[in-house]
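Troubleshooting: if your tokenizer reports a length mismatch, compare your output against this known-good record of 466 residues.
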Amino acid sequence: MSYVIYDVETTGLTRCFDQIVQFAAVRTDDALKVTDQYHIRCRLMPHVIPSPEALNVTGLRIEQLVDPSLPSHFTMVTEIRRVLESWCPTLFLGYNSLSFDEEFLRLAFYQCLHGPYLTNAPGNARADVLNLCRITAALRPDVIKPATNKEGRPVFKLKALAEANDIVVPLSHDAIADVATTLALCQHVRMRAPEIWSQFLRFSKKASVEAFITEEDAFLVSETFGNHHRARAVTRIGKHSEQATKHYCLDLSADLEAIRTMPDIELILLCQGDARPIVTIRTNAAPTLWALYDATPDQIAPLDETEIVERAQLIREDQPLMERLCKVAQAAEPSYPPSPHVEEQLYGHAFPSPQDKTLMQDFHEAHWEKRVELAGRFTDMRFRLLAERLIYLERPGLLEENLRLAADEELRNRVMAPISSKARWRSIPAAQRDLEAFIEKDLEGDQLANMVGYGEHLRRRASEYS
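Known-good structure output:
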């Protein structure tokens, strides 16, 4: 088996409207020895306004992001795709990647007319090294110890965690350095806790997860909500009626009698809060699981192992209760209205038709003049809009005048959206407001110079549209 460890740096945290500006990855063999590596940066797309805080965290200067010698975002994403496909099949790893890096990568692929689900395509798997470190700290604190903040609470930020475990960190919030640090953590756990490393690899496979949660009467799952993390002893009660990879489990420390007598509407409200008794496990998202016999007394308190097994058996013998709880859990899940913005239309829509999939492939193989004609043949309006945007960003002169002028107007409206509009993206006025507040944090030296330079850039761009 090979592994690909990757990291991205972005212009902010808004995954649909910010962009990747740096990507790095290494490919390793089964022993985590590097066999290949890749790194690329790109320039800023004109409709993306970086977050001042993101620039400060990464140390990137605005002049680096608008450097015309850098490849475009489209060129970078296409190259990333080519390299990663050449490294498949593989297990994709990153640090906090399943909630951040992978989402940015998927959306970049989608917006550049590539299939978005490369990391869990047939033959591939994915897992999160953050979860590896959390379970190692829980089960083998002699191998991984968390960092602590000023209040003494455990911290699992990459740089702080590495330093707390005597792993040298040359830089942070640089894609190349973060990949090296993530690789070092993997090597550290694999060498000192091979049983946890094997379990981590096991649960990167959907079939292994499903077999474990189905066959075990009770087990532990690691759950993160907001900035908090907890381990819960649970038993599987069923799965989503339409999404086969989504399974529901009941927290065995919950008040079972209260749950049995509670009206459905109250149970739904309970399941929408932080004290929800039902845990959702996605078998294709490499959940952090471990067997009951591996748990410490603190992890299963206030119950002991015997009580947990007895409760699990009682619940599993009550099929009507399990069916009712699954319906409640499904009803408690949030629903979102459809977005009018194409960037937010990856999820909740049908997969591309065979015709549109073929057109995507043709689009990438064609020259730009041919791509103009191909753009109009997409049957799914999402892909037609994305194709036209790519042409506008790369070869605007090829568009018909009415389309180009409409795109010019859309660009102006987007980057100059007033703060009062509460736009989903970051506009120049919003960035200027954030920058002013950020500079008041007593920045100095290079940090202050970076922010001042960014402020001048924003004023110049705003003047272009005045």
